[in-house]
Structure formats: C-alpha cells, structure tokens
Amino acid sequence: MRLTPAGLWAFGRVLPCSVGRGGVTTAKREGDGATPAGTHRIVGLLYRPDRMAAPAPWAEPIGPGDLWCDDPAHPDYNHAVRAPFAASHEVLRRADPLYDLILVTDWNWPDALPGAGSAIFLHQWRRPGYPTAGCIAMGRADLRWLAERAGPGTRLEVPPALAGRLPRVSGAGASGGDI
C-alpha cells in the first residue's frame, strides 16, 4: 500500500482517503495532527462484532473496555489497554462508526518513544475528505475491502515527499477535524 496525492494505492486500486489535519510530516509528535511519513506495517486488525462480521480470520473484536493509551508519560504509551485506566487514552469502542474497523500500524510501536505519536490507524472517515488527528481515513466500504486483503505485516508507505501537503489527500471535505 502506498499513499499518493490521488489516494491510497492498494492491491490494484486507488482508495479515496484523508490524512491528518497537519498533513504528512517527517517529524511526528504527539498531538500535532499530522500523519507520519515512512514505511509502516499493519500489525493489528480490530473490529466491532456488534456492528459487523470479522473481515478476516486474524481480526480481533473490540470490547467495551478496550482503550489505546496516548499518554507519553505512561509505560503503556501507544499500546492497547483496558478500562479502568486513569492515564490519557482513546476509547476504541466509540458511539460513532469511526472505529468500527481499525487497521493498526506499527508507527512508534512496540517500543514507543515518548511523545513521538500514538494510535496511527487506518479507519473510517467522518465524511469524505475530512481530516483526521494523524490517521489515514476512508469510506467504510473501501476500508472493509482493504481489511479483507491486508494481512499482518502488509507494508504501508507514506512517502516523505508528501510532507507539507494539504490535509486532504483525496476527496472533498471540510478543514479542521478530530480523529
């Protein structure tokens, strides 16, 4: 898979997608809203079993207490954790559909460098072109299609040449954003 100005090229298709509101960066920092450049690998596939069937045999269900630590000072920084959890975190089982299906990347994982960024996922977008907080987002049908084909270790290239580009890689949408 390779991020291009036209979208995410994967398995012979170009999937419309959006990136972080800070664009692509070669100097990722926690909270900067940017998508990190580099060669990443897919290391996890999470899904909401109450909302969809598993997209692949290796997919793991997201349960009610599943979280992701985004506190750079915590020993579990950039790792999946379970509630109750006092440190800063993202809830993986969200009320909205953005995290119904997540491809987890190995950005700053498993040996996380504090402050270098966390929770860099491929997930569903809020609406076409709407920027994320650093992830790569796309439509639900395209994400499902991708999850059915990408296996553990699949490469995701985010070229450094895209650094400084507008937050929207492809698709129309608003500026600003979260998730």
Automatic annotation (TrEMBL):
It comes from the Bacteria. One of its GO terms (molecular function) is transferase activity. The active site is at H123, C135. The keyword Cell wall biogenesis/degradation applies. The keyword Transferase applies. One of its GO terms (biological process) is peptidoglycan biosynthetic process. Residues 1-159 form the L,D-TPase catalytic domain. Pathway: Cell wall biogenesis; peptidoglycan biosynthesis. Keywords: Cell shape, Cell wall biogenesis/degradation, Peptidoglycan synthesis, Transferase. InterPro entries: LD_TPept_cat_dom (IPR005490), Transpep_catalytic_dom (IPR038063). Coiled coil: none annotated. PANTHER family: BLR0621 PROTEIN (PTHR38589:SF1). Belongs to the YkuD family. This is L,D-peptidoglycan transpeptidase YkuD, ErfK/YbiS/YcfS/YnhG family.
